[in-house]
């Protein structure tokens, strides 16, 4: 009887052990299944991300390919403007707006850049147009100054050209000399700011015949008055434009930079803006896709 009971208990324990072992194996299988599922999810996510990255890279490459001619149009328009800009200064252009077509080409090209972007190139493109417009304004202004000097220089033999005769020669000769004397008037201790302040005072004073008591001011004041009188006589005789009289006097008193230096500085600013745009466009077009 006892043997039978013991045998039964041992059989029961064997069954329990078998069940426990099976349960442990089942847990291991579940963990393996969960790990396999997680790995499958990770592989799926990686595949999706790789596809998205590849699609983004392809899109970026296509976008850059489309933007290349847009940037090139502004570069070409800038080159065309730069080629014609010296003509303004040299006086070989014809018409009131000699570079209007070149500027319009840059405006159209810039509008395309503004549509395509990115923001950095939009800013640089706007700078190209702004410096071009300023260089054009300054070139026209400086050419007017050089034209006056040319007309006056004919009388003194400084330039080749059709000579002036009779009264025209006399007034041009006097105006040229008066302007030269004004340039050479350099009172000791006077700065450029002092000269310009005195010139402003001169133009704001109705009684210009009254010379200031200060000896330094008296010297420059007299030179300004003589130059203005001679230049207005030349303008009245038709040798130079009336609108050039005051500007030429201001330039003679200022003497900080001549016309060529002013033109060169503005042309350099325009060329520098073009170079910045070209370099930025090149970097963008040839940099690795994100």
Shape: elongated
Helicity level: over 70%
Instruction: Tally the helices.
Output: 8
> What is the number of strand segments?
0
Low-confidence runs of at least 5 consecutive residues: 154-161
User: What's the Cα radius of gyration?
Assistant: 42 Å
Order of helices and strands: HHHHHHHH
The profile of the biggest β sheet is:
none
> Distance between the terminal alpha carbons, to the nearest Å?
84 Å
* Computed structural class: mainly alpha
Compute the average pLDDT: 76
In terms of DSSP E residues, the strand content is under 5%
Molecular structure report:
With 290 residues, this protein is an all-alpha fold. It has a domain at 142-259. 82% of the residues lie in helices and 0% in strands. Helix 1 packs antiparallel against helix 2 (100-116) and helix 3 (119-156) packs across helix 4. The protein is elongated, with a radius of gyration of 42 Å. Mean pLDDT is 76; it is low at 154-161.
């Amino acid at each position: 009887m006892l043997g039978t009971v013991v045998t039964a208990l041992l059989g029961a324990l064997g069954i329990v052990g078998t069940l426990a072992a099976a349960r442990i194996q089942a847990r291991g299988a579940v963990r393996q299944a969960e790990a396999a599922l997680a790995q499958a999810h990770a592989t799926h996510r990686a595949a999706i991300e790789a596809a998205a990255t590849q699609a983004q890279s392809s899109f970026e490459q296509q976008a850059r390919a489309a933007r290349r001619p847009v940037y090139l149009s502004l570069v070409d328009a800038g080159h065309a403007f730069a080629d014609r800009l010296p003509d303004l200064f040299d006086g070989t252009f014809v018409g009131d707006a000699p570079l209007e077509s070149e500027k319009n080409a840059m405006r159209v090209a810039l509008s395309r850049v503004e549509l395509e972007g990115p923001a950095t190139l939009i800013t640089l493109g706007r700078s190209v147009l702004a410096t071009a417009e300023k260089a054009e304004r300054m070139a026209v202004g400086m050419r007017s100054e050089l034209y006056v000097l040319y007309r006056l220089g004919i009388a003194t033999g400084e330039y080749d050209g059709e000579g002036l005769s009779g009264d025209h020669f006399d007034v041009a000769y006097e105006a040229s000399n008066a302007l030269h004397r004004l340039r050479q008037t350099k009172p000791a201790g006077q700065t450029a700011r002092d000269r310009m302040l005195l010139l402003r005072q001169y133009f704001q004073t109705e009684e210009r015949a009254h010379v200031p008591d200060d000896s330094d001011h008296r010297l420059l004041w007299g030179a300004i008055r003589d130059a203005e009188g001679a230049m207005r006589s030349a303008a009245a005789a038709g040798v130079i434009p009336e609108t050039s009289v005051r500007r030429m006097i201001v330039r003679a008193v200022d003497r900080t930079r001549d016309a060529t230096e002013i033109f060169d500085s503005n042309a350099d600013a325009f060329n520098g803006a073009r170079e910045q745009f070209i370099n930025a466009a090149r970097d963008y077009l040839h940099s690795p896709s994100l």
